[in-house]
Amino acid sequence: MSQDRIRLTVLGISYSQIQSGAYALILAQVNGPYRIPVVIGAAEAQSIAMRMESITPPRPMTHDLFVSFAHAFGIRLKEVFIYRFEDGIFSSELTFASDDRVIRIDSRTSDAIAIAMRTGAPIYTTPEILEETGFVMDTHTGDGTDDAQAAEGAPTYSEDTPTDDSPYSRLENFTVEELERTLARLIEKENYEEAARVNEILKRKRGQ
Q1: From 14's CA, which of 87, 150, 197, 201 has a CA 20 to 30 Å away?
Q2: Is residue 153 predicted with pLDDT exceeding 70?
């Protein structure tokens, strides 16, 4: 590993306030203050949100199928590397290993991260990309607020919770049992984005 590369982790995801129909994925520097916002599509956001909330769909989603296929043939994902940022677009590559072979494949960043989350593979970028696209924030808010929420102007998944005028606001008054039934129905209908929201409320109710 090149020691000048920066390791990242997925911090949060939410509806993008910048681009209609898109979502904002926040990547966080491991053991550092930088955060990188990445605009991704709805399908990829749904896939990542499902993994973040530990929701298992009744049938494999595309990224689940890809990982299962790779594992069936003894191929493992070693890492994801976000290696370029140009004209507002991130470029990433997946490094796979099988026996004595190492293969690198170009990928959309959202797909690469969705696959990495399913395999536990590390995510890296360069110091230059971190400096160009990231923002620095104080991770010690002093009041226990999650640092994703503390980043002014940075949308995160945790901010995509129901507001008072949202149709999901009434879910806050549901019991744990009611939320569990609602979650099961949404998963059965493969409405994973709404299932992720319900699951977030359910986790809070359970004190997780």
Answers
A1: 87
A2: no
Q: What is the pTM of this model?
A: 0.66
Q: Is 68 exposed, middle or buried (0-12, 13-18, 19+ CB in 10 A)?
A: exposed
Element (H, E) at 180: helix 176-188
**Phi, psi dihedrals of residue 137, rounded to the nearest 5°:** -145, 160
Q: Name the average pLDDT for the chain.
A: 78
pLDDT tens for residues 95-140?
999 988 999 999 999 999 999 999 999 999 999 999 988 887 654 4
Q: How many CA atoms lie within 13 A of 37 on its CB side?
A: 21
pLDDT at site 166: 38
Number of CB atoms found within 10 A of residue 72's CB: 8
- Give the number of C-alpha atoms closer than 13 A to the C-alpha of residue 14, restricted to the C-beta side: 20
Q: CA angle 150-158-138, nearest 5°? A: 20
Rounded Cα gap, residues 199 and 202, in angstroms: 5
